[in-house]
Design goal:
The protein has 444 residues and is of the alpha/beta class. It contains 15 helices and 15 strands. It binds pyridoxal-5'-phosphate and iron/sulfur cluster (SF4). Pyridoxal-5'-phosphate binds next to strand 5, strand 6 and strand 14.
């Protein structure tokens, strides 16, 4: 028998648990909902009719602190909050739901109209970054930065739960024209074989680890066995360590998944799980820690990223704790992002100057091992822009910024300046400093 080079699940002693989705349809049946007021339940119904709502039994039983409602960060991370809709949108939907004569068709129509007034596709990212193969546009890929191709396997377009702040809700709701999807692993292989400048493939979604291990293996094999020596790093963006850690332990195909990861590593490649932790609570469960252990034991590097979110983690103590815990568990802090406009920026957004203060204060509290984190950064149309800080230059208060990653590689690493604006939440709220008509990366 071939020897196993990962620890078998029974050593971790995690029982097999059946996944149960909790959505708008059934949330009122879970016992924990007793902790909510009638008004809170109604707000969930109203907001949940417009924005997607899904959580699950693991999150409800192990992550949310039901004694800390309504302030619990994981509760806010999963359960729709009244403030996520602007009052006129909330009231429109609330009136419809209150009115007993409203048909479900009328609710669907109003929800669609409200969604269209929100901003499901910031920056026109989807169209702009689609690559071509043999003159044909590829829907399931994005190739924006020279070294890295993003791949959206069509079976990975959902998640084990939905983050309330997430901007990918348009694809969960099946607004089809906005949906990335690609079935063919060989299209991926063909594209990569023509692009030897690419070193990294990043599987993303949704959450690619919602896929069956066998499906994922098909894609991974297309790379490993596809004569693509220039592909050195494979990354998988996932929130499964938080939202369904059984995925790595006791799920039926957890061992197959470990074997697939092992195979990538044996091919001489770096395999990184781009884990998404928004709050230190998410890695405090025994199950999550065992999942991290198992991945590390197989040789998977875990790098962690999260946006900075009002109501969830806008506190330097929380970030310092997050980074410290990540390092202790063998994970690598990677990015702190600025929350982009997800349709609820008025609720989750943190002004850029406060984001920088939070980053700086947290960064001061940790040792060099946690200072691998970069941020706060806006993942915007021209590239990933880091806020280096606030300074006074020529008697003007300015933001100093730089690209960590850019559409044009030559833009990376040049400091540039924007006028200080107190309420700026995003790049489009910033103006160049010193009377310049445009930023250096903008064409006239
Ligand atoms: C963030 C990102 C990447 C990866 O960037 P790294 O800095 O290498 O982590 C690749 N493509 C897109 C579109 C991204 O937003
Ligand atoms: S897990 Fe990721 S893709 Fe899924 S809802 Fe959360 S942020 Fe969005």
């Amino acid at each position: 028998m071939h020897h196993l080079d990962y620890l078998p699940n029974y050593l971790y002693n995690i029982p097999s648990i059946k996944y149960q989705a909790i959505t708008l349809r059934n949330f009122k049946t879970i016992p924990q909902v007793q902790k909510l007021t009638g008004e809170q339940i109604f707000a969930i119904e109203v907001v949940g009719s417009v924005l997607p709502f899904k959580t699950n039994n693991y999150i409800v039983e192990h992550l949310i602190d039901w004694e800390n409602i309504p302030d619990d960060p994981i509760y806010i991370l999963n359960f729709p909050q009244k403030g996520m809709l602007k009052p006129h949108h909330f009231n429109r939907m609330a009136d419809l739901i209150h009115n007993r004569t409203t048909t479900s068709e009328e609710i669907r129509k109003a929800a669609h109209e409200i969604r269209m007034e929100l901003n499901p596709n910031p920056d026109g990212q989807i169209e702009r970054n689609r690559p071509f193969l043999n003159g044909k546009k590829l829907k399931g890929m994005q190739h924006k930065y020279r070294e890295t191709v993003l791949f959206f396997p069509s079976q990975g377009q959902t998640c084990h739960a939905y983050c309330t702040f997430c901007f990918r809700w348009s694809q969960f709701l099946g607004i089809d024209e906005l949906r990335f999807a690609m079935h063919e692993a060989d299209v991926l292989q063909q594209y990569l074989s023509k692009h030897t400048e690419v070193t990294d493939v990043l599987f993303t979604g949704g959450d690619p680890l919602i896929m069956k291990a066998n499906t994922l293996t098909t894609y991974l094999d297309a790379i490993i066995d596809g004569d693509l020596p220039h592909i050195r790093n494979i990354r998988i963006g996932t929130k499964a360590l938080t939202y369904w850690p059984y995925r790595f332990l006791s799920d039926e195909d957890a061992d197959t998944l470990m074997a697939a990861f092992r195979k990538v590593i044996r091919s001489g490649r770096h395999l990184a799980l781009m884990a998404h932790f928004n709050h230190p609570r998410e890695m405090q469960t025994d199950i999550a820690q065992k999942a991290i252990h198992r991945l590390r034991q197989v040789g998977v590097e875990i790098r962690c990223q999260s946006p900075l979110l009002a109501h969830i983690n806008d506190d330097p103590e929380v970030w310092a704790q997050l980074w410290k815990d990540e390092v202790r568990l063998g994970c690598i802090p990677y990015y702190m992002f600025i929350a982009r406009d997800t349709g609820a920026q008025h609720y989750f957004g943190v002004p850029l100057h406060l984001a920088w203060q939070i980053f700086r204060q947290a960064y001061q509290k940790v040792s060099g091992l946690a200072r691998t984190v970069r941020g706060p950064a806006m993942s915007s149309d021209p590239g990933k822009i880091q806020i280096l800080g606030l300074s006074n230059v020529r008697n003007q208060k300015v933001f100093t910024l730089r690209f960590l990653q850019a559409r044009n590689p030559d833009w990376v690493g040049r400091p540039f300046f924007a006028r200080f604006t107190k309420n700026a939440l995003w790049l489009n709220d910033l103006k160049p400093a010193f009377g310049n008509p445009r930023f250096f990366f903008q064409s006239p």
